[in-house]
């Protein structure tokens, strides 16, 4: 049986892609089970509740040689800890290709679209399979989540077309209202511990030389209520400091993305990160906050800049 | 403009995939130019002559940052020497995923089918584009070449279906006769220098630890006339010895695949390679020749065995 899972610190795309792709593989006669590598965030919990489905079971480890399917990620730092011992038979992803390798020819499907959901809809169509209302709702939610309802610069025409197709199938008549409800659920952070907030949408990227990379931890909080987050700034900086020390990171940043105003103000831990932000982005940090302007996509507007900054030019 | 090319020491799949994918991208409004990274072999020359098209131009270098499309390969050791400086925007391949990375999200399409041609036919269909007779002939030739007209264990049902679809479009009524003519052209090696024979279908694979790999050079001669090749055994062994020294390889093998009888007798240079063949495949070498039986696919039956042999089990 194939184990299908998205990245650690899962977001709505990671969880729903695992659920939907496992169902699609099942309809193609391939035995597959969806898993998650962490707790669903508040937005994802809302999406699953509205859809009337349970979150997939938590996966913590698999024996060497187990056959796995990766969705919405491909880098080992974001996957199961022993990924290099597992047999990757399929990948469906929309991120840059990192350190993934396979020991046999495999099915790999990467496209630079806004959401894994958009790519999964293509797979339904290519397989000649109808999209059931549940799948449509989950895919739609993933696309709205990853593109911030088309606000993110990662948005493509295919993402818009997919939502236009999926909404009536899912029975969602007011897509904007549904998206706002998703974002409100995501922003209702209550008394979530600062460490949990930091790790909610958090990924480690190895920049520069593959043999001796600079490991940077990049967290994002997408919210309709950034004031709430900055009200907890000192707690969050303390959590970032701990995380940096515990995981031996070269740098750590926490971007607070104001979904409705499409701005990114980033929490900056120390002079090390300040220097990199100044040299890589040309922005100054004041009181631990750097204004990254409209750079609201980590994938498209933050990671490539840091990758270029840390990569020696040959 | 995108530069589209297959692997070094190109075979029919590598050359035709570059030609056809560049044409397909052009029909999708994407400016693309096909190239080759080496001389067409005798089979490919026959295919191009029969199709009435020229080989794509030779590509030796590209400036850093140039946008490239890889077909029928993905490992840097088989590509342009400065691949790590180039921007890979698309890959269409049917091999295992090696050391490829991308700096941005890209189009990657890998499937475990017998030929890149089979995958390219899918791309035509998914794009809703008809396949022109020239493209059909080139794709058909690639599939027949890579699967040895369905004799190779890499053959899938999709390869057979693709040939059944393409033959009438290409105007080829007797597929078996066409395949035999291709294989006869490939086997008509004449007075080709031994070094050229060795490098005709030759790839270097890094086995084991990525930071300190065992570099093995694996050549294949697919022929309907193995007697001719073994008649030149001493010349070929001398060429293998030179290649091993010049390129600092850990091992070098030359598999002589009898297409019609579906057997692989492999030329073995030294005691180093003998030991690995004994321990990895359980076969003995006699007079520099190891009988690898029906293992006629380097990709599926030789490379994975060596990869497993050299990979420390975690």
TrEMBL record, chains A, B:
Keywords of the record: Hydrolase, Manganese, Metal-binding
Reaction catalysed by this enzyme: diphosphate + H2O = 2 phosphate + H(+)
Gene3D superfamilies membership: DHHA2 domain, inorganic pyrophosphatase (n-terminal core)
Main EC class the enzyme belongs to? hydrolase
Instruction: Give any Gene Ontology cellular component.
Output: cytoplasm
Domain DHHA2, first and last residues per copy: 179-310
Q: Which PANTHER family match?
A: BNIP - RELATED (PTHR12112), MANGANESE-DEPENDENT INORGANIC PYROPHOSPHATASE-RELATED (PTHR12112:SF22)
Would you tell me the protein name for this molecule?
A: inorganic diphosphatase
């Amino acid at each position: 049986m194939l184990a299908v899972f998205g990245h650690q610190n899962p977001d709505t795309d990671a969880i729903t892609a695992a659920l939907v792709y496992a169902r699609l593989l099942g309809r193609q006669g391939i035995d597959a089970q969806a898993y998650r590598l962490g707790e669903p965030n508040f937005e994802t919990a809302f999406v699953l509740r509205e859809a009337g489905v349970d979150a997939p079971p938590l996966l913590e480890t698999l024996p060497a040689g187990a056959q796995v399917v990766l969705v919405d990620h491909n880098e080992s730092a974001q996957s199961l800890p022993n990924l290099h011992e597992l047999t990757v038979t399929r990948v469906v992803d929309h991120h840059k290709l990192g350190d993934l390798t396979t020991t046999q020819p495999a099915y790999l499907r990467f496209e630079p679209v806004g959401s894994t959901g958009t790519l999964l809809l293509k797979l339904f169509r290519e397989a000649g399979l109808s999209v059931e209302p549940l799948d449509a709702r989950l895919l739609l939610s993933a696309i709205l989540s990853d593109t911030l309802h088309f606000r993110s610069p990662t948005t493509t025409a295919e993402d818009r077309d997919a939502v236009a197709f999926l909404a009536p199938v899912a029975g969602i008549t007011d897509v904007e209202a549904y998206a706002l409800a998703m974002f409100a659920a995501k922003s209702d952070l209550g008394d979530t511990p600062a460490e949990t907030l930091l790790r909610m949408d958090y990924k480690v990227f190895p920049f520069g030389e593959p043999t001796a990379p600079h490991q940077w931890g990049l967290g994002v909080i997408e919210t309709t209520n950034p004031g709430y987050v900055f009200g907890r700034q000192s707690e969050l900086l303390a959590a970032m400091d701990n995380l940096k020390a515990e995981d031996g990171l070269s740098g750590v940043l926490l971007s607070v993305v104001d979904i409705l105003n499409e701005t990114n103000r980033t929490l900056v831990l120390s002079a090390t990160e300040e220097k990199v932000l100044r040299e890589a982005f040309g922005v100054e940090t004041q009181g631990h906050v750097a204004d990254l302007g409209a750079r609201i996509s980590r994938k498209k507007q933050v990671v490539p800049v840091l990758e270029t900054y840390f990569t020696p030019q040959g």
